[in-house]
Structures are given as C-alpha cells and as structure tokens.
C-alpha cells in the first residue's frame, strides 16, 4: 500500500510528455518575470495558505499545503476524475529551486513564479509549466469563533483523533487570531494551534517553531 501511495504521488509532480494539456493554462514560464528566490519561495509557500492546483501536462487536480515546521508538503489529488487520494512528501529548498523528495524516486526540483492573485506556477527546469496553483480563499464565518467555542472544537478534534494523552490548554486572543496550546497532564506544550477567528482557518505547529 505504501508503494502504491508513493507511485500515485509521483503523478502529481512528474510530467508526462504525452499527457493531456489542460485548456486555458499557461504552458511556458513567463518571459517578463524572474523566478522567485529561495527566501521568496519559503515566504510564499510557508505562509500557511492552502492552494488548489491543476496539472498542465496531466488531467490532475487537487490541493496543496507546505508546512515549514516539519519540512513537509501534503494535500489531496484527483487524477482524470477516476483515482483520488491524499499525498505527503518531504519538502525542501535548494538555492532558488523548490524541491520534493520521494522515497522511491529521485528528488524533483522546479522554479516557482508568482502568478495571479497570490498564486504561483511550478515550472520544470526546461521552462515548461508543470502545475498552476491558486490560493484557497477562506469564507468569513457568520459569527467569529470565540475562545470558549475554540476550546470545545479542539477538544472534540482531539477526542476524534483518540489523543487521550493530551488536552486543550490555555487559549488566548491575539487580534483576529486565537492561540491554543495542546498540553500533557504535566503542562508540557506539545502543539500550538493558531485559529483565524473570522474564517476558521487553522494552523498547527510545534511550540518551538511558530514562524
């Protein structure tokens, strides 16, 4: 099963020269722009934004998220509206290239170009566009999440995940953001959730890496 998952993940990022070219998508790197630098890639992809993607050289769509705290990229995919699932891949930056490391294949590195309103293009080293990403726009909630509601929701989340060794600790309000600590019985903080009270968008990070 792990072998199948890894091979399916390759379909997301390894282009097929004979594959279907999706309509109305850019196929070449923009001539009037430079690729992002390593620090710019880190800032864009590590911003906590979730992205929708469309593969240019394959009929594949899905979502992607890059986690700075773990060096991991993950999300979901659907291939040709027939095969679907989730993917998790090691993520790192080499120089000015965005790279993904697979357990059963060589690393794959691409240039990143800013594209549209907050999105980006993943461009192969030969200049062809591999994937087009657009940010997922969160909808504003009718009523912002309160500290009390955040505690109740996170407690339900931990229970659902069978996390009996930890519980919700202190929750504080920082403007539009709520900061919730997940702690052990002795008070040790294991994770920190940052919740946008207006949209419900949530990030989970290690207490030692919250950038």
Tally of DSSP β-strands: 12
Strand fraction equals: 35-45%
Give the CA-based shape.
elongated
Number of helical stretches of at least 4 residues: 3
Alpha-carbon distance between the termini? 34 Å
Radius of gyration: 19 Å
Global structural class: alpha+beta
**Describe the biggest sheet?**
8 strands, antiparallel, barrel
Contiguous low-pLDDT stretches (5 residues minimum) are: 1-22
Mean pLDDT across the residues is 82
Order of helices and strands: HHEEEEEEEEHEEEE
Percent of residues in helices comes to 10-25%
Q: Biggest sheet, strands in spatial order?
A: 1-2-3-4-5-6-7-8
How would you explain this protein's 3D organization?
The chain contains three helices and twelve strands. The two termini are about 35 Å apart. With about 210 residues, it is of the alpha+beta class. A hairpin with a 5-residue loop joins strand 10 and strand 11. It is elongated. The strands form two sheets. The protein has an eight-stranded antiparallel β-barrel with strand order 1-2-3-4-5-6-7-8. The longest helix is centred in the last third of the chain and has 14 residues. The N terminus is likely disordered.
